[in-house]
C-alpha cells in the first residue's frame, strides 16, 4: 500500500490530513491520517512521524527504478540461475539511515533478533514462490540480491519497497505489530518490484489500483504457497498478523470481502469497494489507488475460487502472464487488464478457464 509524500514538514493538527503523492507501502495513508485525528497523544505522534518520514520515499524509489531500468541489458545475469536467493538483512537500529549494519546474510544461521529472522525467511519464501511457481529468478528475473532493513525509525508504522530494498518498521506496539511478522506483506511489497520490472504500471488512478491489487494477489499467494493452502482453505487476508488485539479488525485488507477488514474507532472503517458501482473518484492518494484496488482483488478471488485447487496454479499463472503481456501498458485500465486475463486464460488453459475469468470480472462490474 502507498505511503504519502507530504508537501510540507510543518506540524499537522489532529483534524488535518497530509496530502501529496504516494509510494507503495504497507499501511495506506488514510489509515495513518485517521490515527493522527483519532489516536492517543502517543499514537498520533507516531503516525505523524511515519507520514513525515515517508516524504522522501517516492523520490528514492523512482530514482532506484530508473537506475535498474538503465542497467537492464547492461548488467549481466548471474551465471547460475539455480543458485537460490542472495539475502542480506541489516539493522537500522531505530534510525532512518539505510541499509544499516548487516546482521545476517545468505546461509548464515538464525540470530537472536526475531525481526531479522522473519525478514530473512520472508525474503526466502517470496523468492521460492516466484522461482518454483513461475521460474522467475528473483525480483528482476536476473538474480538480483534481496536486501532488507529492520528496526527502521522510531515506532515506524509501515514497511515499504523503495525500488532497491525492503524496509520494515517495528510498529507502535499499540495498533501495529512489527511489520516483519506478516509474510503476505513481505510478498506484497516485493511484488511491487516485479510489477515495476514487468509492466511498469503507473501509480495513479486505475493503473495504480491495479499495481496495488497485483501486489495483494501475489502477496496472498506467497502465503498460500508457503502454507500449502488451496483457494478454499486460504483466508485471503493481507496483514492479518499485523494488527494488535486493541484494533477492531482482522487485517489491513480482504480480497474475499473488500470493505470488511476493519472497523475501528482509531483506524476508521475499511472503505475498499468490491464492485465498480462503488468506485471512488478522488484526487487524493493518486486517484484512490489503495481504495479501488478492492475491485480487481475481488475479481481475482472469484476467479481463484471458480477454478479451484491451488490458486497459484491457474488463476495465479493467468494474472502473472497477463502482467508480462505486451498488451498491458503502463496506463492500463481495469477493463484492459481484465481483457488480458481473459485472453491469457484461453491461451494457457482453455474455454472453461476463460469463462471463469470472464465471469469473475463481470461479477465486479467489468465486462470483457
From TrEMBL:
GO terms for molecular function: metal ion binding; metalloendopeptidase activity. Signal peptide: none annotated. Residues 79-89 have a biased composition (Basic and acidic residues). Pfam families: Peptidase_M4, Peptidase_M4_C. Its cofactor is Zn(2+). Its EC number is 3.4.24.-. One of its GO terms (cellular component) is extracellular region. It comes from the Bacteria. It is an enzyme of class 3 (hydrolase). InterPro entries: Metalloprotease_M4, Peptidase_M4, Peptidase_M4/M1_CTD_sf, Peptidase_M4_C_domain, Peptidase_M4_domain. SUPFAM superfamilies: Metalloproteases ('zincins'), catalytic domain. Keywords: Hydrolase, Metal-binding, Metalloprotease, Protease, Secreted, Zinc. Belongs to the peptidase M4 family. This is Neutral metalloproteinase. It comes from Frankia alni (strain DSM 45986 / CECT 9034 / ACN14a).
